[in-house]
Fold this sequence. Notes:
The chain is α+β, with helices and mostly antiparallel strands and 417 residues long. It has two domains: 74-273, Neurotransmitter-gated ion-channel ligand-binding domain (Acetylcholine Binding Protein, Chain: A, Distorted Sandwich), CATH 2.70.170; 276-416, Methane Monooxygenase Hydroxylase, Chain G, domain 1. 38% of the residues lie in helices and 27% in strands. It contains eight helices and 13 strands. Strands 1, 2, 3, 5, 6, 7 and 9 form a seven-stranded mixed beta sheet that branches. A four-stranded antiparallel beta sheet has the order 4-8-13-10, with no helix packed on it. It has a two-stranded antiparallel sheet with strand order 11-12. Strand 6 and strand 7 form a beta hairpin. Helix 4 packs antiparallel against helix 5. The chain is rod-shaped.
Amino acid sequence: MIFLLIVIYTMFGSITSFYYNSELYVPKHKDFLDVQTNLTDQLFKDYNPTVSPVYTWIDVEQPIGYDREAPKRWNYTVFLYYLKLVEVKEPEEKVSVVLELMEYWFDARLSWNPSHFHNTTTFYTRQDNVWSPTLTAFGVNDIMDFRDQDNRMVCIDNTGFLWNYISVRVSANCQMDVSRFPFDTQICQIQFCLPIFYRVQVEVLSEIYEGIMDEKIFKTMGNSEWKLINLTNRVEVLKYNDNMGNMDLVRVTVIREFQLFLFQAIFEITIRRNPLYYIYMIVFPSFVINFVSIVGVFLNGADKMSRLNVGLTNIMTMTFILGVMADKIPRTGNIPLLGIYIIINLVIMLIAIAIVTAITELRRWATPMLKLKRTALRAQIETFLGPPLEYTCAIILELMTCANFMVMIGFWFDDGS
């Protein structure tokens, strides 16, 4: 029995020494937890997380600030911490980005006097314990939140200022101008709105972390095909001429003759395509194919059918390239620059086939007539209707092909500058 008591005393003695061991445990931490428990118990005692802190004793049909005794509009801020371009789907006119965001807002019910709680100024809690605004992506096809639904945290300071962290993938609509494809630059917008609230009640703000504007960081925000060249933020105000009011967004819905405003924080990205793939895989091969095909069409000694086969093969190749290009761009009314380049090559080859056919028929008609009466001039004309005429046409068409290629390369250099 005595031995058992000694064992129990030894066990509890070791536990007690561990609990108060300053190297393994800081007693001040327990004091902090006790104070934090007391603080949160008082804050959340009568707190209702299902009701918003937005001031609503206001006439929504009056202008902003008409009531001088009322508090300022409730502020909500979307803070962009990082952005990563994932993919651009040109045929569908969609752009997908991963956004690292922070939300800032105020809740006066969650403020306290730090001196009453051992100068505690902040604490962290689950987001479902507090009321939080419903941030909604506006005009998007898909949005994916990477956060764990059961482990979303929020930080609260003594002034009632709250903030949390959001990591989302957004697939947004982006109207694309492909007239300069593949040297095109696109401007796309990722839009967030705060639905339900009126403009006279809520003010939406947007900010960008200055650190991501560093050149080294900026380069990592694009991908292998697209380079991010600009990033801006704003909150738009849409004005109507019918005196129905202004709003910080691009859409208004009228319900029961009242104005329901959707506030919109806009992050606008400007991206530029890397054209190297299309230069190496389409532009340069098309130039070589056209150049060699012209030589084959005007090859001296080849029969007419062989020349036509070369030309028709070239036309089929250019048509196939046009089909490949068509799968990469949206169906718009603009003909892309690459399409114009291929069509010009196609026209050049059609001209070459037409010239070869015309020269053959011209010789068949003119040669017997020139031999009826032999003169020096007729002899020179007959000689010119031979290989010299074909060589002259071939050189002109080759120069046209080279000029078309050089213009295309010129757009590339201009785009790079």
